[in-house]
Amino acid sequence: MAAFLAIGSGSAPSGPKALTSDQANLLAVTRFRNYQAGGRAVTINVPNTAGGLTVTGSIDYRGKIGYGVVRGTGRDTSSDGLIEWTATTVFVHPMANTPAKAPAWPPESGWYRRPLQNYGSSLDSSLAIALKLGSDRPENAELLPQNGAAWVGQDRLDGHQVDIMTGPSARTRSGTPGAVRYWIGSDGTMYRVRVGVASASRPVVIDFDTQKYVPVRPVPGATPAR
Predict the structure, then answer these.
(1) Alpha-carbon torsion, ordered 54, 194, 186, 60, to 10 deg
(2) In what order do the strands lie in the sheet with 65-72?
(3) What letter does residue 135 receive in the DSSP assignment?
(4) What is the three-class DSSP state of 58?
(5) Alpha-carbon Rg for the chain in angstroms
(6) What integer is the mean pLDDT of 192-220?
(7) 3-class DSSP state for residue 21?
(8) CB-based contacts of 223: which residues, under 8 Å, 6+ apart?
(9) What's the domain of life for this entry (predicted)?
(10) CA quadruple 7, 195, 150, 23: dihedral positive or negative?
(11) Residue 29 pLDDT more than 50?
């Protein structure tokens, strides 16, 4: 299981405590809920020493592909533009005047293709983690508590009552150390994830349903990973 992580939006966590069977079941299905939904709108905040990057867009969890706008803050504006990514490849479309949201149809030209970096890039690590927050089957709820998953507390996030839990105490699939925390609703819906990556001084925060989901269409000539 990929490990996930979360923070509260004001209230102090009261855990960690052992998961109840109901909490373990919610944790077990949360990535599956993203897959069931087909896709989710996301905002990915990536901190770094130059200021940080924000990716606003959509992820198709069945097609395993993400697409959106990337904007930098502070001194980190060199990556501004459109971005699309799979588990292995990143496509970037630099823009001097980046729109607030990505066009529904990716431009037919102006894209640059590069491999997704597994290590050393906080942006690429964040993209890879966000893409892995969907799974075509639930986790094994009985194994989660045995592997260190725990309940941390409750909170409200954008009007949703959520449970904050940590995933198993293991390295994430992107190679970053430690458990991840995340917020999930009463039906297992994932609303926020916060995870530390080795190349960033502060955790990456991934928020869901921050805007309307727009179906992801591949960059012309690009084939989504299957």
Answers:
(1) 50
(2) 112-115, 89-94, 81-85, 65-72, 53-60, 39-46, 204-208, 190-195, 181-184, 160-166, 150-157
(3) -
(4) strand
(5) 17
(6) 91
(7) helix
(8) none
(9) Bacteria
(10) positive
(11) yes
